[in-house]
Amino acid sequence: METIQTGARTSVVETRSSWRKTDTMWMLGLYGTAIGAGVLFLPINAGVGGLIPLIIMAILAFPMTYFAHRGLTRFVLSGKNPGEDITEVVEEHFGIGAGKLITLLYFFAIYPILLVYSVAITNTVDNFMTHQLGMTPPPRAILSLILIVGMMTIVRFGEQMIVKAMSILVFPFVIALMVLAVYLIPQWNGAVLETLSLSSVSATGNGLWMTLWLAIPVMVFSFNHSPIISSFAVAKREEYGTEAESKCSRILAFAHIMMVLTVMFFVFSCVLSLAPTDLASAKEQNISILSYLANHFNAPVIAWMAPIIAMIAITKSFLGHYLGAREGFNGMVIKSLRSKGKSIEISKLNKITALFMLLTTWAVATWNPSILGMIETLGGPIIAMILFLMPMYAIAKVPAMRKYSGAISNIFIVIMGLIAISAIFFSLFR
């Protein structure tokens, strides 16, 4: 490998060709944030419409998610000063007023999902202790506190520890998911092949195009890792300088290939082992695919694996979403203080944010409200706007982003973003 040294900086040749341990760690961290508990519902939502919509979604999965996240990464990297997160870059490009508004929206798109995960981890562990271990779980307030403090302890050690913990948790999750997908192969049947017709109606009564339209948001949020993108871009810019964009694109590409291959294999294996009516029944019962498979095949192996996979998935996603929620909360506080001519040390602010997150997630996990699904859905349009539309708008309006204009992928992402937002609103008000 050709290496040219200029002072302390490594040459462009080496930077572009080398792959560092930190790149692998971030690749797995991106995967860990995206592939969470949502993947356990993806086979139901994606497969209930039959095989043709599922095949189309498998084809769309990589370009739709890769180009969108690459656009958001480029947006964060377009800031003048290294170390600027998404909230600072928005203010730089769109002004103080827009900066405050988008920072507020960014926080309220991610923070409710953090609350969802705090409830989900408590319910999953409580259920596992009761049914699989035969134990009486401690009172909900104590159990949720222990679990959230455990996850927040990882947070306390800083961003690098969060990413490292997530990258480690990816391995048991992927292995368990692939073992389960292979375990289901003997159960594959031809029931879903009966839906191989463009005029076929899904088990839920929708035609092909309606099924596809409503499934796009499910795909977006099953592969969404926008909460960690800003931290990822800032860290790589610090590490690679002017070569950060090409390096980030490469890391994102590998992460998305890994996501699509593992998740779609799991989805197809689940769908091929059940009939469309089974998937419609699972959707009606509002349970994960693992719970339905365990009941359907009367399989103790799946009954044991389900909560373990769910616990790993939820923990990974909680940590990744924490980075985004902290960034949004910090941004709101910093902008509020700045307008009053004040400032605060980032280390002190991180401690205040951690305390706020701990108390609120614990309170919600103890309360266990049933409206969290709605909160997560309401956050959906905001995430789609920030992930799909804002970077594309910036390409048209911001000089620093103008170099990315003219690509067909930009039009594709705008169309997919509008489809996702319209489908979410349709689902909400139907």
UniProtKB/TrEMBL annotation:
GO molecular function: amino acid transmembrane transporter activity; symporter activity
GO cellular component: plasma membrane
Location in the cell: Cell inner membrane
Keywords: Amino-acid transport, Cell inner membrane, Cell membrane, Membrane, Symport, Transmembrane, Transmembrane helix, Transport
InterPro entries per record: Amino_acid_transport_2, Hydroxy_aa_transpt
Membrane topology (UniProt): Multi-pass membrane protein
Record's signal peptide: none
Record's catalysed reaction(s): L-serine(in) + H(+)(in) = L-serine(out) + H(+)(out)
TM spans (from-to): 25-44, 50-68, 101-121, 141-158, 165-188, 208-230, 251-275, 301-325, 346-365, 371-395, 407-429
Highest taxon listed in the record's lineage: Bacteria
Name this protein carries in UniProt: Serine transporter
Organism: Kosakonia arachidis
